[in-house]
Write a structure and sequence with these properties.
alpha/beta; about 15% strand; Arginase, Chain A; about 300 residues; eight-stranded parallel beta sheet
Length: about 300
C-alpha cells in the first residue's frame, strides 16, 4: 500500500485564521525526503469566511462543500490502495477523511487525539466553530447537516476513543458522557502512562473492525511548547509525551487504515517550534507506512 499525502488547506472550521497555511508549509518541508504522491486542496479564496462567535453555524455550507470534494479525493485514492495521510487544516477536515475511510472500509475504529473532544453539536456549541463538532459528526451524534454527502456507515461510538481531552464545554461533557465513546483524559495519561493508554485505545478501536483511523490534533501539546495552534488549551502534554504517543501509534501501523495531523497554524507559531514537532510526527508516520508497504510487497512476492 503506497502512501498518499493530502494537504487539506482549510481553516473554515474555526474563527482564527492560519491553519489553512499549515499543509503547504509542512508539505514543503517534506519535499526534502518524501518522494511519494501528494495533492493539496485549498479552500476557495473567494469565500467570505465568517468569524462571528455568535454565528452558531459558521461557514456550514462552505465546509460541507469543501469536505465533499476532499472526501471524494480520499475515497478514490483509498480504493486504489493508497494509505491516506491528511495534513490539515483545522479538524473539520477530519470529517471528510474519517468518513472516507468509513466509506471504503465499512467498519472502522477511530482514535481521536485532541485537547478538545470535538463533540459539540449545533445546539451545544458556545462558539459556532465547526471544528468543535467534528467527532460528533463522524460518530452520528446529530450534526447530520455536515455529512449530507455521505452514504456509508458512520463510525460506531463503541469503537471510538478520545485521548488527551482536557478542554470541554459543559454541554459537550454531557454529549461525551451519553455518546458511548471512550474518553482518556489528560489526567488518565499521567496516571496510567502513554503505552497503556495507547494499547487500550487500539484494542477498543480495533475490536471487530477492519482497522483504525487516527486523528492527531497537535493542540494536545502544551502551548508553551507548541504555540502554533488556533485554539490553545493550557496544561497540555510535553513534546516527549507527544512523540511517545506517536511512537506507540507507529507500533500499531499494521492495524491502521489512515492518519490525520491537524490544527498546525504557522501564523501563531514561534521560532517554528510547532512546525518542527508536526514535521517529526508526520515523518515517523510516513516512514512506518512505507516500511509496512515494503513488508507487504515482500510477503506477496514470496
Amino acid at each position: 500500500m503506497r502512501t498518499m499525502i493530502f494537504g487539506a488547506g482549510s481553516d473554515l472550521g474555526v474563527h482564527i485564521d492560519g491553519a489553512a497555511l499549515g499543509p503547504t508549509q509542512l508539505m514543503n518541508d517534506l519535499n526534502t525526503f518524501y518522494k511519494g504522491e501528494s495533492i493539496i486542496l485549498n479552500a476557495d479564496q473567494s469565500i467570505m469566511k465568517s468569524r462571528n462567535l455568535s454565528d452558531r453555524k459558521k461557514n456550514e455550507y462552505e465546509i460541507e462543500k469543501y469536505n465533499q470534494n476532499l472526501y471524494k479525493m480520499i475515497v478514490d485514492k483509498t480504493k486504489e490502495e493508497f494509505f491516506p495521510i491528511v495534513i490539515g487544516g483545522d479538524s473539520s477536515v477530519s470529517i471528510a477523511s474519517t468518513l472516507a475511510s468509513a466509506k471504503v472500509n465499512t467498519d472502522i475504529g477511530l482514535i481521536w487525539i485532541d485537547a478538545h473532544p470535538d463533540y459539540n453539536t449545533f445546539e451545544s456549541t458556545t462558539t459556532g466553530n465547526i471544528d468543535g463538532l467534528s467527532l460528533a459528526t463522524v460518530t452520528g451524534y446529530k450534526c447530520s447537516e455536515l455529512r449530507y454527502y455521505f452514504d456509508g456507515k458512520i463510525v460506531q461510538p463503541s469503537h471510538t476513543v478520545i485521548i488527551g481531552g482536557r478542554s470541554m464545554d459543559d454541554k459537550e461533557k454531557d454529549n461525551v458522557r451519553y455518546s458511548g465513546v471512550t474518553l482518556f483524559t489528560h489526567e488518565d495519561i499521567k496516571e496510567k502512562g502513554i503505552e497503556t493508554i495507547m494499547n487500550e485505545a487500539f484494542k477498543i478501536a480495533g475490536y471487530k473492525t477492519k482497522g483504525v483511523h487516527v486523528v492527531y490534533d497537535i493542540d494536545i501539546i502544551d502551548p508553551e511548547i507548541s504555540p502554533g495552534v488556533s485554539t490553545p488549551a493550557f496544561d497540555g502534554i510535553s513534546e516527549e509525551e507527544a512523540m511517545s504517543i506517536n511512537e506507540n501509534i507507529v507500533k500499531h501501523i499494521n492495524e491502521m487504515l489512515s492518519f490525520d495531523l491537524v490544527e498546525f497554524n504557522p501564523l501563531r507559531d514561534i521560532n517554528r517550534k510547532t512546525e518542527q514537532i508536526a514535521l517529526n510526527i508526520i515523518t515517523q508516520i510516513i516512514k512506518a507506512a512505507e516500511k509496512k508497504q515494503k513488508w507487504q510487497q515482500t510477503k506477496t512476492y514470496y
